[in-house]
Amino acid sequence: MTSPSIQKLLTISLHAQLSLIMTKDVDNLLKLAALHIHEKEATSFIE
Description:
Largest sheet: none
Shape: rod-shaped
Number of strands: 0
Distance between the termini: 68 Å
Number of domains: 1
Helix content: over 70%
Strand content: under 5%
């Protein structure tokens, strides 16, 4: 049997890890979007 405090800590750490993964994904998505925008600007500038 696990005490409620330990369960709370586990759920909190789980949520923290999930939010970290989410923010990392968001950062990567933003970087990708920025790259695509720059590529579009570069190609349109050449044309």
